[in-house]
Automatic annotation (TrEMBL):
Pfam families: Glyco_hydro_17 (PF00332). Residues 1-24 form the signal peptide. One of its GO terms (molecular function) is glucan endo-1,3-beta-D-glucosidase activity. Keywords: Glycosidase, Hydrolase, Signal. Belongs to the glycosyl hydrolase 17 family. One of its GO terms (biological process) is carbohydrate metabolic process. Transmembrane segments: none annotated. This is glucan endo-1,3-beta-D-glucosidase. It comes from the Eukaryota.
Length: 379
C-alpha cells in the first residue's frame, strides 16, 4: 500500500493544482458489488478519496473493503443481509457477528452504522417481517454490552412501498398491513436516536405513469410543481415530496422525533424499451440536480432546517444484477473507473464543454488527473 500512498498524494496535488471542485462531504454513495469486473477495493479507495467522497454504504461488511479504507476519512454504513435476521435475534450469534465483522476494523475504519436487513417489507414473507425488529434490538444490545453503542448506531433500510398513501405529502400513511411493525420499529428509533432509512426512487413512479407525472418534476428541472392543499407547502420535485410523505406517515402513528434519511436514490442510464425515461441524459440531469441540492444543504418543504441526507445508488454499474436492464445501469462509474455521465462538478469529470480560453489550462490539468486516476485503477 506504500505505492498507493505515494500515488494518492500525487493525485491530491494534481487536483489542487487544477483548481477544480471535487465531490463534497455531503454525498453518500452505495457501494454494491454484484459484478465480476469491478476494480479492487484498494483501487476504489484511492479513487474515492481523490474525489473526497466521505460516506459509503455497503450491503455487507466486506473485510477487503473495510481494510482498504482504513485510516481514511470515509464513514461506513455496513449491512447484515436478510438471510441472517433470524440468527441475529440470538444473543450469542449477534455477539459473534459484531466481534468478527465489526470490532476488528473499528480502530482504523470509521464504521458508524449497521443496517440490519434491507427492504424487508418488500417481501411477502411475514416471518422475516417478524424477525426484523428482534434482530435490530439484539445487535443494538450487543453494541451496548461491548461499549460501542455511542460509536455505532443500528437501523434498517425500507422500500418506499411501505407507504400506502403518499399524495399529498401531508396525508402520507404506512400500509395497513405493516402498521404494527412500524409502531415498534419507530419506538426503537426514538429510544436509540437512530434514523429511519428510506429507499426513494422517483424513476419508478415516472416509469409507471409517464403520461401523468412530469419528467421535469422528477428530474429537479424547472417546473410548476405542486402545492399540498393541506399545508400550502410547494414542492418542485418528487423526491422531497416522498420524504415528507414518510415524515407524515411517521407522525400519523405518534412520532415527531425520528429523522428520515434517504439510503438509496438514483436514476438508470440505460433500460429496457418498457422502462420509460431510463436514458443517459435523464440520469445525468437527476444526479447533477440532486447534487446541487445536497451542496446547498436544502431541507424539504416540511423540514426546511434539516438538510436532506442522501446516499446515491450506486457507485458502479453491476453486471451480474438480475432483473431488467436498468438494474445493471445505476452506476455513477463504469467498472474501469470512468464516469458514466457528467454530474456537473465544474470540471473534475470529463464531458464538460469549456466555452472560454481561461478554462483551457484547467481542462489540460484535469485531463492529467483523469489519466493518473485511470492508471491507478488499472495498475
Amino acid at each position: 500500500m506504500a505505492t498507493y500512498s505515494v500515488h494518492l498524494r500525487l493525485l491530491f496535488l494534481l487536483l489542487a493544482l487544477s483548481g477544480v471542485q471535487v465531490l463534497g462531504a455531503g454525498l453518500g454513495i452505495n457501494y454494491g458489488q454484484i459484478a465480476d469486473n469491478l476494480p479492487s477495493p484498494s483501487r476504489v479507495s484511492v479513487m474515492l478519496q481523490s474525489l473526497d467522497v466521505s460516506r459509503l454504504k455497503l450491503y455487507d461488511a466486506d473485510p477487503k473493503v473495510l481494510q482498504a479504507f482504513s485510516n481514511s476519512s470515509v464513514e461506513f454504513i455496513v449491512g447484515i443481509g436478510n438471510e441472517y435476521l433470524q440468527d441475529m435475534a440470538d444473543p450469542v450469534k449477534a455477539q459473534n457477528w459484531v466481534q468478527q465483522h465489526l470490532q476488528p476494523y473499528l480502530a482504523q475504519t470509521k464504521i458508524t452504522c449497521i443496517s440490519v436487513g434491507n427492504e424487508v417489507f418488500m417481501s411477502n414473507d411475514t416471518q422475516i417481517w417478524s424477525n426484523l425488529l428482534p434482530a435490530m434490538k439484539m445487535v443494538h444490545n450487543t453494541l451496548v454490552n461491548l461499549g460501542l453503542d455511542k460509536q455505532v448506531i443500528v437501523t434498517t433500510a425500507h422500500p418506499f412501498t411501505i407507504i400506502g398513501n403518499s399524495f399529498p405529502p401531508s396525508s402520507g400513511t404506512f400500509r395497513q398491513d405493516i402498521i404494527e411493525y412500524m409502531h415498534a420499529i419507530l419506538d426503537f428509533h426514538s429510544q436509540t436516536k437512530s434514523p429511519f432509512l428510506i429507499n426513494a426512487y422517483p424513476f419508478f413512479a415516472y416509469k409507471d405513469s409517464p403520461d401523468k407525472i412530469s419528467l421535469d418534476y422528477v428530474l429537479f428541472q424547472p417546473n410548476e410543481g405542486m402545492t399540498d392543499p393541506n399545508t400550502n407547502l410547494h414542492y418542485d420535485n418528487m423526491l422531497y415530496a416522498q420524504v415528507d410523505a414518510v415524515y407524515s406517515a411517521i407522525k400519523a402513528i405518534g412520532h415527531t422525533d425520528v429523522e428520515v434519511k434517504i439510503s438509496e436514490t438514483g436514476w438508470p442510464s440505460k433500460g429496457d424499451p418498457t422502462e420509460v425515461g431510463s436514458t443517459l441524459q435523464n440520469a445525468e440531469l437527476y444526479h447533477s440536480n440532486l447534487l446541487k441540492r445536497i451542496q446547498q444543504k436544502q431541507g424539504t418543504p416540511a423540514k426546511p432546517s434539516v438538510p436532506i441526507d442522501v446516499y446515491v445508488f450506486a457507485l458502479f454499474n453491476e453486471n451480474l444484477k438480475p432483473g431488467p436492464t436498468s438494474e445493471r445501469n445505476y452506476g455513477l462509474f463504469y467498472p474501469d473507473g470512468t464516469p458514466v455521465f457528467n454530474i456537473g462538478l465544474q470540471g473534475n469529470l470529463p464531458g464538460i464543454i469549456y466555452s472560454s480560453a481561461s478554462n483551457i489550462n484547467a481542462l489540460s490539468t484535469f485531463s492529467l488527473v483523469i489519466s493518473v486516476l485511470a492508471y491507478l485503477i488499472h495498475a
